[in-house]
Design goal:
The longest helix is centred in the middle third of the chain and has 36 residues. Helix 8 packs parallel to helix 10. With 269 residues, the protein is an alpha/beta fold. The chain contains 10 helices and 6 strands; from the N terminus they run βαββαβαβααβααααα. It starts with a strand and ends with a helix.
């Protein structure tokens, strides 16, 4: 269900050691089913159904297929991308739920890699517009104190506990987010079945505040007047509708109308 990736742009950061320690911590301290994937080859770990290494030898299609299969089977999967800056790693990173970049000097890199992930998602037809508004990748930067560790990430037991708890907490949050998304998807499918002329009435029958439903109806009509189809307007505006109060939705509509009006005045007829 939940895929956490560990990565560093620099070698000898101890990413594999760290991610393995988190994997073992989760198995020991939680009742969740946990699996581990290593992009490189592990010398001290035996291959099993829940522990796979040498992922770099697989094609990207095989990697994605295996990850999807494991996400259906296990609660948490720890993905050790190590310090491999390759096309294969970059193609796989967008499907992680959370990315942990190891090293405090890697803040800028973490932002860049996050931008790549978001960019890829824009052009992924399987990622619906309204879902990208409700969930998204988070990039955590695991900082290392420079006092006694200049080279590598030599973790201590208490750090493993801290990072393990962080991963577990984020898994719970991700689980709740996906549960919420599933409910939103269900509502969205019901809204799409409402006849265009009866949208505000249909929203009210679904239990949505009448005034907010009427405002959403007007917003959809506004988008249709700008050239969007009814279905496209519903899909584009749904995340705004579901995540905004009446006042916020009204402000967004007013701002859009003001912008369009001002733009039309500036364009010569």
């Amino acid at each position: 269900m939940y895929l956490a990736g560990f990565y560093s742009p620099k070698e000898k950061k101890g990413v594999t050691e760290l991610s393995l320690s988190v994997y073992h911590w989760l198995k020991k301290n939680t009742t969740l089913s946990v699996a581990f994937i290593a992009y490189g080859t592990l010398e001290k770990e035996e291959m099993s159904l829940e522990l796979i290494h040498g992922f770099s030898q697989w094609t990207v299609s095989e990697q994605k297929r295996q990850v999807r299969k494991m996400k259906r089977k296990y609660d948490i999967i720890i993905y050790d991308a190590s310090s491999q800056l390759s096309e294969g790693v970059l193609k796989l990173l967008p499907i992680v739920d959370r990315l942990f970049v190891v090293g405090e000097e890697n803040n800028e890199f973490a932002l860049k890699i996050h931008q790549i992930i978001q960019f890829d998602k824009i052009f992924d037809n399987r990622v619906k517009n309204f879902i990208t508004h409700l969930q998204g990748n988070k990039t955590f930067v695991l900082r290392e104190s420079k006092g006694d560790r200049v080279m590598g990430f030599h973790y201590k037991k208490e750090e493993t506990n801290h990072i393990g708890e962080m991963v577990y907490t984020d898994y719970v949050t991700c689980y709740l987010e996906k549960t919420l998304i599933e409910r939103h998807v269900k509502i969205f499918e019901q809204i799409k079945k409402i006849p265009r002329e009866e949208l505000y009435r249909g929203l009210y029958e679904l239990g949505i505040d009448f005034e907010k439903g009427l405002l959403f109806h007007k917003f959809v009509q506004h988008r249709e007047a700008l050239g969007q189809t009814y279905e496209e307007a519903i899909e584009k505006l749904f995340p705004v509708f579901i995540n905004s109060t009446f006042a916020e939705l009204l402000q967004k509509l007013d701002s859009e109308i003001y912008f369009i009006t001002k733009l039309n005045k500036q364009i010569p007829s």
